[in-house]
């Protein structure tokens, strides 16, 4: 009788331990999802949820206020659930050079009640994510291009989370071109340079 009771106590202890372990794992994932603190997935932009990203077309969109940019320009970026699309609870957003996992530029203006910045790749405010899991149909943020660098053509890359098991990654804006650099040569009045399609002509008076 004593052996049977001891066995039951051990089984109850094991079941309690297992339940607590499962709860801890689930809670850790849920907290990471709900508060947007996702710095550990800066490269993959895949949330720490159970399951895989959806392979169907995203019901959400990423758009930008400009189709080209120069160093120091600011671009308004909009994340949206258009039309009858369901609201999204979570998101993550970066600007990237096509084919590169590192973010470029920084976010300088956003609704702090909905969003928070992340320092991905050791770059201040280089990414932005949700602050809570309230339902959202639109989020806007202002991105600033690097002032002393020319990374090239970029796109805004986003992850959208509809709920804990439904999320989309690599939802991108159209490509935004780096504006061509222009230059002027300050020459004395006695000479000028004429650039033509057929070649370079240097003329003197």
Describe this structure in words.
- This protein is of the alpha+beta class and 205 residues long.
- Helices cover 16% and strands 35% of the residues.
- The chain has one helix at 2-34; strands at residues 61-64, 68-69, 74-80, 90-97, 106-110, 115-118, 127-130, 138-144, 154-163, 166-172, 177-178, 191-196, 199-204.
- The strands form four sheets. Strands 6-7-4-9-10 form a five-stranded antiparallel sheet, with no helix packed on it.
- The longest helix has 33 residues, at 2-34.
- The chain starts with a helix and ends with a strand.
* Form type: globular
Distance between the termini: 117 Å
Number of helical segments? 1
- Unreliable residue stretches: 9-33, 182-187, 189-205
Order of helices and strands: HEEEEEEEEEEEEE
Mean pLDDT across residues = 79
What portion of the residues fall into strands of 2 or more residues? 35-45%
Supply database-style keywords:
single chain; 205 residues; alpha+beta; 16% helix; 35% strand; disordered C terminus
What is shown here, in short?
This protein has one helix at residues 2-34; strands at residues 61-64, 68-69, 74-80, 90-97, 106-110, 115-118, 127-130, 138-144, 154-163, 166-172, 177-178, 191-196, 199-204.
Give the topology.
Blueprint: H1 2-34, E1 61-64, E2 68-69, E3 74-80, E4 90-97, E5 106-110, E6 115-118, E7 127-130, E8 138-144, E9 154-163, E10 166-172, E11 177-178, E12 191-196, E13 199-204
Parallel strand pairs: 2-11
Antiparallel strand pairs: 1-3, 3-8, 4-7, 4-9, 5-8, 6-7, 9-10, 12-13
